[in-house]
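note to self: dont lose this again. the chain is below, predicted strucutre after it. 84 aa total, dont forget to put it in the shared folder this time
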Amino acid sequence: GRTMRFSALRRHIGGVSERMLAQSLHLLEADGFILRKAHDVVPPHVDYSLTPLGEEVSGHVRALAGWIEQNLDRIPTATVDPQE
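---
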């Protein structure tokens, strides 16, 4: 529920490449989940925040992630056959 700059988002998420984060943010903006606000300053300054739709979906994603964490013991581990 807050506005963040690109570098702050990257640090907060961790383990994501700059390119992958940029692509993800672009797609989320196109889908209406993220608001991107570019400020006309030097050096460039861009803020990202959730739209109302993004806020709504984030609640569902958090609920799903919480459910998964609470039920990991009930979720069978898939065995992948390398010859398939």
